[in-house]
Every structure is written in structure tokens, then in C-alpha cells.
Design brief:
The protein is of the alpha+beta class and 281 residues long. It is 49% helix and 12% strand. The protein has a 4-stranded antiparallel beta sheet with strand order 4-1-8-7. Helix 1 packs antiparallel against helix 2 and helix 3 packs antiparallel against helix 4. It is elongated.
Amino acid sequence: MDVVLRPINDRFFHEQVLPFLARAMGDATGALESLLETLGDGQARMLCERMLATAVPGGLGSVDTDPWSDLVDRLAFLPWKEGPAGWEVGTQHAGYADAWDEALHLSLMLEEPHYPYWDSKGAREVRDGFRFRPLADMGLASLLAGHWDPFPEFPPDRVFVTQGRGEYFPTERFAFADWAWRPARAVAHWQVNLPRKLERLIAREQERMKLPSLPEKDEVLGYWLGKLPQPPPLTVAFSGLGPRAASWIRELGALTTHIRQAAMAKQGLAALVTKGSTVRI
């Protein structure tokens, strides 16, 4: 698994995670002490107390790196809910996981009208550039590449990294890292625009194939939009997808399902490139 996409509690991320990380850049001890007051989760509290026992005054360099990474991973990528003793981890649901390159390929097909998905070399060059300078306003593709929107009050690549990618330019309001998130309002916006983008993708492929119609169009769209449980057997494979058309249609359906479910639950989404992924540079 090279990239993981998980739903997150929008309020918890806004009210607890973002302020905690911003304060920790210059005052890690104060940030940990403040966070402790709000947590009812035993594992997260143990990690905070472990770091406080050895911390010295200062920012992130003043705390142990291993428990810090474990704590941020827990805060940013697990489903949190309010309990009697404070914020605690709720019921975990299956997230999305796939090869990072594959997920980027599918998301760029969805988001970028001019992405040359039919050209293996050209598409690879676009993805390679996108990884190290993800563009804004590319929806799901921007999230999977680590672009931050809204712009954070801290450098996200200093919080933790897995691939060593990251930039933080306050004057340009531009930041990206090996992890990123989107608030619930952005996910809801994606869900509203999904039908239009999916129809655009199919229309683009129909034009490329120079066909008056695609026999499976309605069934493929129905699957991508959650109206059908399974994709149809393809009598006309999308030429841009080649022999892997069926698997790519299924994987794009998995991605759109996660957007739809998060939007319906009024949740945000967080993405993380895992330590095991490799990228050709």
C-alpha cells in the first residue's frame, strides 16, 4: 500500500489537531500539555506523557521523534469522537489504499481534462512533475500529491515525512508534504462535482475512440456514482485504459466511493504516502 486515504472528524481536526501542530512548532511542551487536557484516548495520552517526561523547552526538536510520529499519525488519520473523558478514537472503517502512482494516475484522469492518460511516457512525466510541485485546484489529485488547502500555519513537512517531499512558502501561500487533508466542505464540493467530471472523462474517451456512443456508458457511470454495485463487463475497452480497463474502472469506483461516503458523513479526508512507497525520480 503506497497511499492511504481516510475520513477524519472535521471538527476535531480544526479545533485540536491544527492548533496543536501550530503551537508545537515553537512550544512543543506547552502544546502537549494543552492537548492532554482534551484527550480521553489512553494511547494518545501515554504518548504525550512519554514526550513530556523527556522534553526540554523549544519546538519539535525538543521532543523524541518516535513517539511524536506515532502521536501525529494517531491524531491525523484515525476517526475521533467526543466521549465523557474527552476526545477518543471511534469505530474504524476501512480506508482506501493503493499504489501511489496508480492512484495519482486515476485522480488526474478525473481532475485534469488535458492529462494524457493514453500516452504512457507523457502521463508519467506529468505525474513525476505533479509529485514535486502539486497544483492547486486539482481536487482529489492535489490531495493525493500532498498539497495543502487551506494553507497551514506550520510547515507540514516538519511534522513528519515519509518520502522527504515538502515545501512551505508563506508568501505564496503554498505548501505540500507527504501527507495532507481536506475539510468537509471541500469533500462535499467534490461530491457535487463528481458526476460532471466523470461524464467528462467518458465523453473524452468516446471522442478519442471516434464512436457515436459507448455501450457501457450508463453502467460505468452508475457504478462510479454508487448506483450500481458492480461495473459492467466491458464489450468495448476504453482505448486510453488499454488491457487494464476493467481494473482501472473498478479502482476509480473505489476512489469515488470514499469521496461519496465522507461527504455523506460530513467528514474531511486525509491522505498519507506510506513509508513503503517508491517513486522514480
